[in-house]
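Lab meeting, item 3. Inverse folding demo.
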């Protein structure tokens, strides 16, 4: 079980030396309890205490990195069973699966799609993570050629799916230095697969038929010197996946079974109703999800679901405060002030664009709160508006001194006028009515 901060504090030297970067040993203990620092930062801790704390304060699920460079991604290092308890940190990588029997043109098309396709939602660019290539031909040469086609086109994280060590070795001559994920070691072949993974420094998928078998297999692989593991639960049904993934997550985060403290792999392409399997994997702890290439609408739905679940519920998606242009506004263009909650920003921006009236959007920093919440919490104030006008040099962008504020901010209108010297116009509460409001009220 994880130690609480006071339990950890009892094991510390209590020197308050600050050499760890924290002002007191108690602060350091609190960070250790939350998994936000490392025991090695304390220079005076004795070996016995360090051994205890290393086992209880490290992330309960190991962080594993796939690929290198700009498109690399990390999975694992999660601390909770339910998102609302804290948050989920590392979104699952969703990777398209192709066979090495596909034509070079087909492989190229999927590679280019994963490399280039993305769509933007509430200010965040969403895209798929990489490609899983399966050695369905049984030929090391076919497998190697398929990998070569991908590597010539894009630097993407890869999953190499093969049962033949010779095929893996052939493929790794092209991508072995790029940390592909090797799939999969079993109780029968783990020594050969561990040797290959260790030689190339690659993370390794272990595949077992039960939670007990996976625990033993992870222990065997770490003994062989491979630390970066991902577990394939091999479920035969949705229910089996839910039971196994939830059991593993519970045992990992409570540290009752450290040998299960690794991310989870799900090949949705081999399950009935692939789309439902992807949804289940995103929702229930899968860290690497494999699927056949998805139609555009399904792809966007999967990426949107992943974004929703892996957005910190305690930290709303925020826009950077600043002065934004809609169209090509001139000196007489209206200035509309609103908050930096992303949903508010993009909703208002969409309606403003539909009016075809060039204008400015002054986005003030309310720490991601909506207008109504920010007003109630005191995060939106006349001082904030005044300082934002000065900070973003709004006065030099327009020739007038009129500011349109959201309807829900109307209680602040008089105070904003006094603080800024600008005339305040109270806009509608519903952004859908902004077009009509500007048409009737904005005269410059």
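The presenter then showed the designed sequence:
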């Amino acid at each position: 079980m994880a130690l609480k901060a006071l339990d950890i504090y009892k094991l510390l030297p209590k020197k308050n030396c600050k050499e760890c970067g924290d002002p007191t040993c108690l602060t350091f203990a609190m960070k250790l309890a939350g998994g936000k620092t490392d025991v090695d930062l304390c220079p005076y801790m004795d070996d016995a205490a360090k051994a205890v704390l290393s086992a209880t304060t490290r992330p309960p699920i190991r962080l594993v990195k796939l690929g290198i460079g700009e498109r690399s991604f990390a999975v694992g290092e999660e601390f909770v069973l339910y998102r609302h308890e804290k948050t989920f940190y590392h979104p699952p990588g969703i990777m398209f699966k192709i066979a090495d029997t596909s034509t070079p043109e087909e492989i190229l098309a999927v590679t280019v799609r994963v490399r280039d396709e993305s769509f933007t939602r509430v200010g965040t660019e969403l895209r798929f993570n990489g490609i899983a290539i399966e050695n369905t031909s049984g030929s090391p040469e076919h497998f190697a050629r398929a990998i070569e086609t991908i590597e010539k086109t894009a630097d993407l994280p890869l999953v190499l799916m093969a049962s033949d060590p010779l095929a893996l070795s052939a493929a790794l001559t092209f991508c072995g230095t790029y940390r592909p994920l090797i799939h999969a070691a079993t109780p029968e072949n783990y020594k050969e697969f561990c040797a290959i993974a260790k030689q190339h420094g690659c993370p390794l998928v272990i595949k077992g038929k039960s939670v007990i078998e996976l625990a033993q297999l992870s222990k065997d692989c770490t003994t062989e010197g491979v630390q970066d593991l991902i577990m394939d639960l091999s479920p035969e049904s949705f229910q089996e996946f839910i039971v196994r993934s939830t059991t593993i997550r519970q045992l990992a985060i409570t540290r009752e079974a450290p040998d299960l403290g690794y991310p989870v792999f799900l090949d949705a392409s081999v399950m009935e109703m692939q789309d439902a399997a992807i949804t289940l994997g995103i929702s229930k702890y899968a860290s690497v999800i494999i699927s056949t290439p998805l139609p555009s609408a399904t792809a966007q739905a999967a990426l949107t679901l992943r974004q929703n679940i892996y957005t910190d519920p305690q930290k709303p998606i925020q826009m950077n405060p600043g002065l934004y242009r809609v169209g090509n506004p001139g000196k007489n263009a209206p200035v509309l002030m609103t908050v930096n909650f992303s949903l508010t920003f993009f909703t208002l921006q969409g309606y403003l664009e539909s009016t075809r009236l060039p204008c400015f959007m002054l986005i003030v920093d309310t720490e991601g709160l909506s207008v109504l919440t920010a007003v109630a919490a005191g995060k939106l104030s006349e001082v904030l508006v005044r300082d934002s006008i000065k900070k973003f040099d709004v006065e030099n962008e327009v020739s007038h001194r009129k500011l349109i504020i959201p309807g829900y901010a109307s209680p602040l209108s008089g105070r904003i006028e006094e603080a800024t010297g600008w005339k305040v116009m109270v806009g509608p509460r519903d952004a859908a009515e902004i077009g009509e409001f500007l048409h009737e009220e904005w005269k410059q």
